[in-house]
Model the fold of this input.
Amino acid sequence: MKAFLILEDGTVFKGQSIGAKKEIISEIVFNTSMTGYLEVLTDPSYAGQAVVMTYPLIGNYGITPDMESKRPWPDGYIVRELSRIPSNFRSQGSIQDFLQKHDIPGIAGIDTRALTKILREKGTMNGMITTNENYRMEEILPKLKEYVTGNVVDKATCKEISVLPGKGRKVALLDLGAKNNIAKSLNKRGCEVTIYPAHTPAREILESKPEGIMLSNGPGDPKECQDIINEIKILYESDVPIFAICLGHQLMALANGADTHKMKYGHRGGNHPVKDLATGRVYISSQNHGYVVDTEHMDKNVAVPAFVNVNDKTNEGLSYVGKKIFTVQFHPEACPGPQDSSYLFDRFMEMMGGAK
Done:
């Protein structure tokens, strides 16, 4: 069946329908990872977005047990070529069946390089995936311009408290749309990880007497999370060591008077170089974000830049003055992506007093 991707600037791509046969409007973003498409699909940070995979062949090793959450999150999926016959001893099915099962529409057979160039040159924009050959552009374009992702953290967070047992340090993980490997990375270091829904009051978390607090990644505009920001202010005032990733990094900055802004097209993929300003060493990182912290107006008595993006010089991390708090914009837990910066979990362990 024919399918069409219509961008809000009027550009139309024609391809073949994959996945569910339904029409969606979403924010169109691209990911440059060469592998790990299943981890990308199941990353809650993609809630409210449709993902373009820049690598030309997707699905060749099928659906494996490597999911970063219980379900896929993108509104739509856009690829150059979808593998028809997955080949992998771990494969449990095809991407086509996976998309259909989870009611996610997609489009294949389009020039994803040309689409990515448009998004890089003009910036991230909204789009529609449809199988309606008789679409009316004059009706669609106003709808595309009106679409906003809204507060998608409420959609992506867990609904109840859960515990990953461990005999070491007690860590509270605030789930803003967390990838599984954050909790696993802590649990692998012996930690007992208690996972809390995003709107859990700070008082409740602190009453459980955690030895460390983790703020996770998540989707959407950080400024939509004002209630959560207010609770993070209370966590900041405590003496409990805090490590924050991605959206958690942005919310901690907003809680301390910094500002954030939407990037032209964001960082999404497993090949982004970041520089540790303390050592001068560069790490290749996994990233997935469309917003960034503005550090120019941040009080240097509160926090100082700790990491910077080598390509565009945007902020990639902060170290908080006089506090056992550090935050990063990238993903040290990776999945998919390089494990270069996984040592940051060891730094967090040291802040809590080391492994028990």
